[in-house]
Amino acid sequence: MRQGAGHSFPKAGAPSRANFLSIPLGPRLVFPFGLVRRIVQHMALIESMHAAELRYIEQLQAFLGRGLSIPMQIISLFASEAFVIAVVPAIYWCVHRKKGAELGLLVLGSAFVNLWTKQLFAWPRPYEIIPSLGLAKESTYGMPSGHSQLSVVFWAYAVQFLPKKWRIPVLIGCPLLIGFSRVYLGVHFPSDVLGGYLVGAVFFSLFSLFGTGIEQSLQKFGWRVRVLIAAALSFVMNLLLPADTMISGAFLGAAIGFAFASRNIPIETEGPVMQKVVRYLVGIASTGVVYFALKFASGPLNALSGGSQAQLIRFVRYAIVGAWVSYATPFLFLTLKLAKREA
């Protein structure tokens, strides 16, 4: 065992979360052996870097104390799944339909890239090496930080809805605060956070460069092509990340729902403030009912299949939720006269 900062690190070939010898790219896909060998040769450097970062996290927690745990967890919420679920539909239903749909697909795409990249690196989290550092827990690998990546992608897009004087402070301040909170909580190394910033910046830059052109091309081909492309992308997501079908399912349902909603029931997001509040509350409440009903139903279905179809059931479940948010709720708003159809 190699030693760093007084703590044990696994050998490069030992079965562990930091094992680079089997990097999943999807079913039966692995990196070329030469590339894997070069990665393994850098394991000592990575272990040394993590050892220095562990000392930094220990010193940070000792200096600030552990009383900031709850405030830091609250800060982390502003780049969490719950935050996205609460805010993105609000933009889609109540602020700008097209931009809300675009942001929703952008966030789902970023989340997929993050999970897939985590599988490539398979780096541990600080508290997995020193358990006492863990002021919070996560179920995935560490590199790159999903909260840091999402904070860059989300706020780079969402600042357009804020007053101009707030845009730069929010764009810079939110990712920095969120990244710092993740390090303080012991769930990420500083390098994980920097990696999240980098991946998020590259992802959003690619969207900024090519997103408008792709959207214009898709508009020319019509809704059928959009549905086929959504299905193809969802299939590729499942191929590359078969162990987690949540994002691919949500992406398929949302993308198809957005396409049909734009074609059949485009709603106006304008209206009195109180109407928007009621619209949002009805949308969130109905989405919650659908989500928990499907979650409850998935238990018996998994039992009937002996657990062999768990990922398929999860895929369908999140596809339905995505379709509900993108298509069924606008239909519900029109039915309840909480929104008007676009002229």
Explain this structure.
With 343 residues, the chain is mostly helical. It has a domain at 222-343. 71% of the residues lie in helices and 2% in strands. It contains 13 helices and 2 strands; from the N terminus they run ββααααααααααααα. It has helices spanning 33-41, 43-64, 69-76, 81-94, 97-121, 126-129, 146-158, 164-184, 190-221, 223-240, 246-264, 273-304, 310-335; strands at residues 2-4, 7-9. It has a two-stranded antiparallel ribbon with strand order 1-2. Strand 1 (2-4) and strand 2 (7-9) form a beta hairpin. The radius of gyration is 22 Å and the shape is globular. The protein starts with a strand and ends in an 8-residue tail after the last helix. Residues 1-29 have low confidence and may be disordered.
Write the layout of secondary structure elements.
Elements: E1 2-4, E2 7-9, H1 33-41, H2 43-64, H3 69-76, H4 81-94, H5 97-121, H6 126-129, H7 146-158, H8 164-184, H9 190-221, H10 223-240, H11 246-264, H12 273-304, H13 310-335
Antiparallel strand pairs: 1-2
Helix pairs in contact: 3-8, 4-5, 4-12, 5-7, 5-11, 7-8, 7-9, 8-9, 10-11, 11-13, 12-13
From the structure above, extract its key features.
single chain; 343 residues; mainly alpha; two-stranded antiparallel sheet; 13 helices; disordered N terminus
* Sequence stretches where pLDDT stays below 50 over 5 or more residues: 1-29
Q: Count helical runs.
A: 13
Q: Give a short account of the largest sheet.
A: 2 strands, antiparallel
Find the structural class using helix and strand composition.
Answer: mainly alpha
| Helix proportion range | over 70%
Let me know the number of strands: 2
> How do the strands of the widest beta sheet line up side by side?
1-2
Strand content: under 5%
Radius of gyration: 22 Å
Tell the overall outline. Answer: globular
